[in-house]
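Let's do one together. I've listed all components of the complex below, 314 residues spread over two lines.
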Amino acid sequence: MNQMSETRKFTEDILATANAKSQTIITKAENERQQLLDEARKNINREAAEITRNAEADAEGVKRREISEVRHRVKLREELEKDKVLTDVLNETKKKVHEIVNDKNKYSAYLVRLVTDSIRQLGMQSVRVHLSAEDLKNIDITALVREVTSAVKTPTKIEVAKDPVTTSGGVVVSSPDDKIRIVNTFEQRFEALEPKLLIEAGRLLFRDYS
Amino acid sequence: MSGLEIVKIIVDSEKEAGNILVQAEARALEIRKQLDDIVLREREEKLSTAKREATSTVQKAEMQGKSEALQYEKESEIRIKVLIQNASAKKNSAVKALSDMILI
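Okay, and this is what the predicted structure of the assembly comes out as:
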């Protein structure tokens, strides 16, 4: 009887030990799984966060691009409209300047100023004045020379060339040998002043909107 | 109980103990194997949700951008119209000023 009970106890111990070991193995496996799962979840969350971050950056870029495209388009349109007005104003200015030719008194006074300035720029005592064919026909040359001589205030020999220059108005003043020329025709003045005219026109027309 | 019977009982219980351990190892293996499936499923779910939300975020931003751009364009149209109207009103005085610059 005693022998049997000892044997049962012995076998019970063997099984209890096996069960305990079994539980340890399973618990260890579960713990490992949980640890690996936690690590994997961290990585998954990192990946998801990266996707979200990239999407936010993309979204910002998409939005910025939409607005920037329209801003660029609007800016071009604005420049185009401004350009039209500026071109129109410059063309009107050319017309208005050419109209002075029809007002004999105003135009003669203008030519006197122009020739006087040109002689001063040239700094010579003897000069040749070149006019357009129209001006040679319509302007009182004697009066022009007289008024210029008086305006220059230094003794200057003024000769008016008989050959006309091709221009719609204004004057070319040269040295007697024609080697040095001050060109003050309308066309040249427009060309020389165009950058300034554009700046001034822009200032006058759009100064409240710059 | 004879000695032989005792030895048999002990050998049987050792066998049973061995079986218990084998089963435990099999269960542990199964537990570890489950990990891959769980990770794969959770990753797929989480990333697919994130991608869906990302697409929606970008689409929303695009729509918002288009709407803001449209509003800006409308406002600019009006601003340019006013700008040109005001400039046109100043045209004659500008032509006079520019002519004066040319005519000294």
